[in-house]
Write a structure and sequence with these properties.
Blueprint lengths: L24 E2 L5 E5 L9 E2 L6 E2 L4 E4 L8 E2 L4 E10 L5 E9 L22 H10 L12 H4 L10 E5 L9 H8 L1 H15 L4 E6 L3 H10 L6 E6 L8 H9 L14 E5 H13 L5 E8 L6 E6 L4 H7 L7 E6 L6 E2 L13 E6 H4 L12 H5 L6 H9 L3 H6 L10 H5 L6 H20 L1
Parallel strand pairs: 1-14, 9-10, 9-12, 10-11, 13-17
Antiparallel strand pairs: 2-8, 3-5, 4-7, 5-6, 7-8, 13-14, 15-16, 15-17
Helix pairs in contact: 3-5, 4-7, 11-14
């Protein structure tokens, strides 16, 4: 069978999907949660609760503050202790609401029954309002507020909705399990998004290493109009928006452009599920599936984890840290971030807790570039990483902008491919920060 994929670059790391057969379990509740007021791209939410307030599961505790921002809700019931700073996974301070857990009392508006509600007769503004109120953000990693993404800009027209069921990042299996266990809810969520953006066609892309998920969705989709399932070749980083668009539609997003420029809107399967829960069940985004895995983990698993649960508790409840762990990564090995403190908490963007063995964390000695051009060949964006690194080392920020550094999706293909162990991605990330600051300064 011929399988489509994107054309330019890409790599084939070992998938290591150890937890793919592990059905999701519900993680117990800790005594204390710290719910971040920034679990999304954009402006931090403004707290609307005070110390001593009693809250229920699903109650609004942080109000979106700006066009690109998202509401934050309590993931537990209990008493607000304080609003204070916590460290995020990168070690930066951010505000959070500390809540002492007392039972598990849910907001009365939330439908907690397992029944799947298929029909949705709501008008589009009402649907968008529900998505916005529920604090839904992109769960594929970017955490961009979903209600903003679904508002097609004037002068643009959506032609097709693309759903990302790729999960090409090694080790992670949370989307895979969701497609197996909540397939019908995902399809309802997709139908709702199709209605909002005004398209009659949706395509779900799933890599062929998830054959059981493909078959499950193909069986369910017969009851839904305009949705098709397309198996794709295994290739990293096929989950990137631009790569997925090319794989599914053969269209290429122009440099500096957005998916809507080629008539596409892209959403992750977990986001579609969250839309279903928001619109059909009045349930805000208060929990998500997190994969706990690693080569030395004895019991790999996928867990429904409430937002704000400390990683110390998650680690304790899932078997502890393996003895040969050299680093804990939040997310996958390619685009994840090394955890600076176990006191950090699960957020809306947390897809995985990966234990990396000591031997895999050793930084290999950097060698001279041998001009093999593997970094260029494997780059899915067609960039020249060796040039970008040289420009970054010399602090040539204007030249980096001309070399299209802002097109980098930080997938890590260049680091993976480099035989000389050059820290290409670290230099490019630094350059993107500096060039981004220059662009913002110019705009103001």
């Amino acid at each position: 069978m011929f399988l489509k994929t994107f054309r330019l670059g890409g790599i084939h790391p070992k998938s290591n999907k150890f937890a793919s057969a592990s059905t999701t379990k519900v993680l117990a509740l800790p005594d204390l949660v710290k719910i971040p007021l920034v679990s999304h791209i954009g402006a931090p939410s403004m707290p609307i609760v005070n110390p001593g307030d009693k809250v229920k599961v699903g109650q609004l505790i942080g109000q979106a503050n700006g066009h690109v921002s998202a509401n934050v809700h309590s993931s537990v019931s209990g008493t607000v202790l304080k609003i204070d700073s916590i460290l995020d996974v990168s070690g930066k301070e951010q505000s959070a609401v500390f809540i002492q857990v007392e039972g598990d009392e849910w907001d009365e508006k939330i439908d907690c029954t397992p029944d799947v509600i298929v029909a949705c007769d709501l008008e589009i503004p009402h649907i968008l309002n529900k998505i916005m109120n529920a604090g839904i953000v992109g769960l594929g990693g970017a955490t961009f507020p979903t209600h903003v993404k679904l508002m097609v800009p004037p002068g643009k027209k959506a032609e097709v909705l693309l759903i990302n069921g790729i999960e090409c990042e090694p080790y992670l299996t949370c989307d895979h399990r969701l497609m197996l266990e909540r397939g019908e809810q995902i399809l309802v969520g997709i139908s709702i998004v199709m209605k909002v953006i005004g398209v009659s066609r949706a395509i779900i892309g799933v890599e062929i290493n998830k054959k059981d998920a493909i078959e499950n969705l193909k069986g369910l989709v017969k009851s839904f109009k305009g949705i098709e399932i397309v198996p794709l070749k295994n290739k990293y980083p096929q989950g990137g928006e631009k790569q997925l668009i090319e794989a599914l539609t053969d269209k290429q997003v122009p440099c500096g452009g957005l998916p809507i420029d080629v008539g596409c809107v892209v959403q992750n399967v977990a986001t579609a599920h969250a839309v279903y829960e928001a619109v059909q069940k009045n349930k805000p985004l208060i929990e998500r599936i997190i994969t706990v895995t690693g080569k030395s983990v004895k019991s790999h698993g996928n867990y429904w984890v409430r937002i704000g649960v400390p990683f110390t508790f998650l680690v304790e409840q899932t078997g502890g840290v393996p003895h040969d762990t050299g680093k804990i990564v939040i997310g996958g090995p390619m685009m994840g971030r090394a955890l600076t403190s176990l006191e950090s908490v699960a957020s809306k963007g947390t897809a995985g807790l990966l234990y990396v063995q000591n031997e895999e964390t050793i930084q290999k000695q950097e060698q001279n570039c041998i001009r093999c051009s593997k970094c260029i060949t494997d780059c899915p964006m067609g960039l020249e990483q060796f040039l970008l690194k040289s420009q970054a080392d010399l602090m040539f920020w204007m030249e980096m902008e001309e070399s299209r550094v802002m097109d980098c999706i930080e997938c890590g293909c260049c680091d993976y491919s480099c035989p000389s162990n050059k820290p290409l991605l670290a230099a490019i990330r630094k350059g993107k920060q500096e060039v981004g600051a220059l662009i913002r300064q110019r705009q103001h």
